[in-house]
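Predict structure. Chain length: 346.
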Amino acid sequence: MKTGVFLIQLGTPSAPEPGPIRSYLRQFLWDRRVLSVWAPLRAVILFLGILPFRPRRVSHAYKLIWSDRGSPLFYHTQDLAEGMASVLGDNFIVRFGMRYGEPSIKRVLHAFKEDHIDRLIVVPMYPHYASSSFGSSLEQVYRLTSRWWNVPSIQVLPAFHGQTAYLDAVAKIAEPILNSAGSIDHVLFSYHGLPEDHVTREKTKVHCLQSEDCCDQLTQVNSFCYRAQCMATTRAIVKRLSIADHSSSFQSRVGSKWIQPFTDKELPRLAEAGVKNVVVFSLSFTADCLETLEEIQIRGRDSFVEAGGTSLTLVPALNAEPEWVESLSQLVRALAEAGGALAENN
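Prediction complete.
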């Protein structure tokens, strides 16, 4: 049996210039799962409020993280796909693509179709479920493959925030960073933010964001709650690495009605409270990107130091580290052997 393995990242501009950034943002923010408002209002916000101004503003930020190989998100994922192909062997064809940008999901699916695969394993590269990332990627895969005459068996690797293979890889990569960081006063777990209404939709309305302790455990009621999944990841990593002083926050917000606390407020607050040396995990991202390298390692560090802190150490994303190549390959192989069922075992 020939199995295709499709690693899907959210996306990246093709170059750190206003034109490619504008094209990327147009595709990204037109998605109803991302900017979930009435389509005419979405058009006004996008074409009058964002696209005329934001691409030029963020171009400088992208240039700070760009390398000779291009976008870190792109080349780290490319390296991961190549590493997994080597580990999984000849019966698996591993490709990567972007929900927004290139290589597009449409382009990669066409390549798999040309390979005459018998089975497709879709691996959204988001540890936690959000409709705007995981849900949107799956919707696009299903929409495109539904047009095929011969549709292969499609399996999906679920959000893997609770999988031992993922958590152990994070811990193994982070441990030497923590050991070499010197005296650590606090560890901050920063996750990508979401609008509150993305969390409270559907059945979670009766539970999510309804109390201070609503995310203290994952249950059937809040199993799809992004914030609760993030908090569960924090607890699992804290236990593995015996971390004492820690907190969790959410970055990359656009507006005040987003899940809290906010990373851009939490870092200066910690410094003002006397924290001198902080280590930051940014666990929403399996590959380093603008949000980890520029938002946390550059701007976050600057705001922390300006508020009285001394040093901020960023734990790198999993990228294509050998531990992650092996762990994700293990999850994919287990899914293939189980025929679609993969139990959590954190």
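Summary: The mean pLDDT is 94.
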